[in-house]
């Protein structure tokens, strides 16, 4: 890939909340030396830098990272390294174990990343204080959405918007009263109308932080292809690709996790089949990919999946 050099042979490192931690060790003029901690099952992505003179170097201190290049991952083990210089599109990193990287850049990036992460923490704290299920659900939806988007459209430059919208699609639930959000029984029509406002509240919270496009994607996660969804009853191609992906990821996680008002969760296989069986509601191309990922075992429950 142009701009990527492996084993010693820019861009900015975007962090998914609680998937990575960044520590600044030293700084002189524009050069920064940092330690990047990636936690098990993390998905992190490197995107082209605004400044074309940016170069970033990564050295694996412990664990390993998989560089997801098209459909073929390249594993960088302990002692391995790579750098990015003139990167043209995103590179995705994954790891299934805690991994520590030495991260060196010739341009000051730490303050930008730290400030960005602070905004994410502020939003997610609102959700976690309200409802821990929603907090965990948001992370699952983000991971499933990234997996689907990467395989459907690996060359598109829209992953940042997708991830931010998926991670914060339910942040508006911080305004839903506890007695409704955590009610174990069926909601009344009036209570459901309150729940139906949360995509609008999510969009309102996201707009000043991430812009209108991210807000619009998050707002559409309960819209359905036949127009039966909410809050606006959008249909077909009026729902963005990212919105259709998050809608499937959101429903899939809701079906496969235990919630206060549902019976036992369904298996991944059963949930994927059900979503695929509803072409009036869900995009069939995305649903077919979800089913294929589950069938192949690429998408499987984690040990702590409830």
What would your notes on this structure say?
The chain is of the alpha+beta class and 306 residues long. It folds into 2 domains: 4-108, Jelly Rolls (Sandwich); 115-296, Hypothetical protein af1432 (Orthogonal Bundle). Helices cover 40% and strands 22% of the residues. A 6-stranded antiparallel β-sheet has the order 1-9-6-11-4-3, with no helix packed on it. A 5-stranded antiparallel β-sheet has the order 2-5-10-7-8, with no helix packed on it. Strand 7 (65-69) and strand 8 (72-76) form a beta hairpin. Helix 2 packs antiparallel against helix 3, helix 6 (198-210) packs antiparallel against helix 7 (212-219) and helix 8 (241-256) crosses helix 9. The longest helix is centred in the middle third of the chain and has 21 residues, at 110-130. The chain is globular. The two termini are 38 Å apart. The model is unreliable at 8-17 (pLDDT under 50). InterPro entries: HD/PDEase_dom, HD_domain, HD_GYP_dom, RmlC_Cupin_sf. Residues 112-306 form the HD-GYP domain. Keywords: Hydrolase. It holds the Pfam family HD_5.
Rg, nearest Å: 20 Å
Indicate how many domains the architecture comprises.
Answer: 2
In the CATH hierarchy, the third-tier topology of the largest domain is known as: Hypothetical protein af1432
CATH architecture of the largest domain: Orthogonal Bundle
Low-confidence stretches: 8-17
Briefly characterize the structure:
The chain is α+β, with helices and mostly antiparallel strands and 306 residues long. It contains ten helices and eleven strands. The chain folds into two domains: 105 residues, Jelly Rolls, CATH 2.60.120.10; 182 residues, Hypothetical protein af1432 (Orthogonal Bundle).
């Amino acid at each position: 890939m142009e701009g990527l050099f492996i084993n010693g042979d820019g861009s900015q490192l975007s962090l998914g909340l609680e998937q990575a931690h960044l520590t600044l060790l030293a700084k002189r003029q524009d050069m920064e030396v940092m330690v990047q901690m990636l936690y098990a099952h993390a998905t992190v992505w490197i995107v082209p830098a605004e400044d074309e003179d940016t170069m970033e170097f990564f050295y694996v201190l412990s664990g390993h990272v998989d560089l997801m290049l098209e459909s073929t991952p390249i594993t960088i083990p302990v002692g391995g390294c790579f750098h990015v210089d003139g990167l043209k599109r995103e590179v995705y990193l994954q790891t299934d174990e805690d991994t520590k990287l030495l991260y060196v850049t010739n341009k000051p990036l730490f303050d930008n990343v730290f400030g960005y992460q602070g905004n994410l923490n502020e939003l997610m704290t609102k959700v976690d204080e309200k409802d821990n299920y929603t907090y965990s659900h948001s992370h699952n939806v983000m991971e499933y959405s990234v997996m689907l988007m990467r395989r459907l459209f690996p060359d598109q430059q829209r992953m940042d918007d997708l991830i931010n919208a998926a991670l914060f699609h339910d942040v508006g639930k911080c305004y839903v009263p506890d007695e409704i959000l955590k009610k174990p029984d069926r909601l009344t029509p009036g209570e459901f109308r309150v729940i139906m406002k949360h995509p609008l509240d999510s969009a309102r919270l996201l707009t000043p932080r991430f812009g209108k496009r991210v807000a619009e994607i998050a707002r559409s996660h309960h819209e359905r292809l036949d127009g039966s969804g909410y809050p606006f009853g959008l249909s077909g191609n009026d729902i963005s690709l990212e919105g259709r992906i998050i809608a499937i990821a959101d429903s899939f996680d809701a079906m496969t996790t235990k919630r206060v008002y549902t019976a036992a969760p369904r298996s991944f296989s059963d949930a994927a089949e059900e979503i695929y069986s509803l072409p009036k509601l869900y995009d069939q191309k995305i649903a077919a990919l979800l089913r294929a990922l589950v069938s192949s075992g690429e998408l499987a429950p984690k040990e702590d999946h409830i």
